[in-house]
Design goal:
By secondary structure, the protein is an alpha/beta fold. Helix content is 34%, strand content 18%. It contains twelve helices and ten strands. Helix 11 (338-350) links the parallel strand 8 (325-332) and strand 9 (355-363).
Length: 396
């Protein structure tokens, strides 16, 4: 299975669409079934086997369409990709299952991980590039992995409730799907970085009330988007300004009650319409060094009350997750200011969560993801092995 790593790297570098893999909008598998309300959350609506990335890898894969409920209370048909090694699990207990959240960071379903993992390899696979080594590492450990399109069919970026429920219902679907082989004594973990950390932690905050039957042995999250308004302000006018565009369009579209859409001028409303299905990676390329004040006739758009209201509704920290957490963040993160991470850790600790938090000296958002993955993997492996973990908070 060591060849997985090289194969994944090769696949990530191929900017073509593989024959036979239709775009999600043209794929009947993504169509919403009738009578959605009659299914329970996490129920598998449809399934099909896939080859991971369309390659002949020693990994069994399936795509599952499942029922979830978005933040408006509407029943939705979401997607999960489930991957498991073909080799038998030789560890104690059942094969572990990890819910891994990629940084979906998108406004359209083309950017969803199910398309890339199923073999669709246009430029949207760049959204997956950072995560492929981590997915391969978990498979090499013998763990099963479920990757959910947690933004839902409407691609609701930074919608905490929709994302968290999607993660939990994806785990429900993977557990209930017999071919994956998840048993009653299989430990469950979760992991995500950046946008994936946002959805992971929202899921853990919602677990006790939304999916109390799911018990997580441990959860790792890094590069955590906390202090959302400060993220947009950090990148405004810089090389990563496309991230601020992504946030501006998402909040204006997803939260009309905030009044943010009324703060935009003609340029801003045109932006929301034109970029309504863009991937975050595309936005970064298209909006280098862009300033968000271009999109409002009033200065300091990212400091307006309407933008603050929209971001505050999606902030993490309202509830303490009730499972062991491993949180990591670069003190020199060039995209997500560390101050928001530190405040979130302090909030979780004050609420009684069991937290191991690391402020690393690695410079840069993506380099910190690679270096921090070592600690995240060890933390999950220790939890699956039932190694003791201290209560309370350990912050360094």
């Amino acid at each position: 299975m060591a060849g997985i790593v090289a194969a994944l790297a090769t696949a990530a570098a191929m900017p073509i669409t593989w024959a036979g893999v239709p775009m999600p909008d043209d794929d009947p598998f993504y169509a919403v079934p009738a009578r959605m309300e009659s299914f329970t959350n996490g129920a598998v609506l449809n399934s099909r086997p896939i080859s991971m990335l369309g390659l002949p890898l020693p990994v069994a894969g399936w795509q599952l369409q499942f029922r979830s409920t978005d933040s408006a209370g509407t029943a939705i048909a979401d997607m999960a990709t489930v991957l498991t090694p073909m080799t038998p699990w030789l560890g104690t207990g059942g094969r572990p299952l990890v819910s891994y959240q990629v940084a979906e960071d998108s406004l359209g379903i083309l950017c969803a991980p199910s398309f890339a993992l199923g073999g669709g390899q246009d430029l949207s696979i760049s959204n997956m590039a950072l995560d492929l080594p981590f997915i391969s590492a978990m498979l090499l450990h013998g763990w099963a992995v479920v990757v959910t399109d947690y933004e839902g069919p409407q691609s609701r970026f930074f919608d905490g409730v929709t994302s968290g429920r999607g993660v939990l219902d994806g785990v429900r679907a993977a557990k209930s799907f017999a071919p994956v082989g998840i048993s009653g004594n299989s430990p469950i973990g979760a992991w995500g970085y950046s946008g994936g950390a946002f959805s992971t932690l929202w899921a853990m905050q919602l677990r006790a009330t939304y999916a109390p039957e799911l018990m997580f042995s441990g959860v790792a999250s890094g590069g955590v988007p906390a202090g959302l308004a400060s993220i947009a302000r950090r990148v405004d006018g810089r090389a990563q300004a496309g991230l601020a565009v992504l946030m501006l369009v998402a909040f204006a579209r997803n939260d009309p009650a905030s009044g943010l859409i009324d703060d935009l001028n003609d340029h801003g409303r045109t932006l929301v319409a034109q970029e309504s299905a863009a991937c975050g990676s595309d936005l970064v390329l298209h909006h280098l060094n862009r300033r968000m004040d271009k999109y409002s006739d009033k200065p300091n758009l990212l400091w307006h009350r309407q933008f603050e209201v929209a971001t505050q509704r999606q902030e993490l920290g309202g509830i303490a997750p009730d499972m062991p957490l491993y949180l990591y963040h670069s003190s020199a993160d060039d995209m997500i200011p560390v101050e928001g991470f530190t405040a979130l850790v302090n909030r979780y600790c004050a609420l009684g969560a069991a937290v191991t938090a690391t402020h690393s000296a690695i410079s840069g958002h993506n380099p910190a993801a690679l270096m921090g993955s070592v600690g995240a993997m060890k933390f999950l492996a220790d939890r699956f092995a039932k190694a003791p973990v201290a209560s309370g908070c350990a912050v360094r």
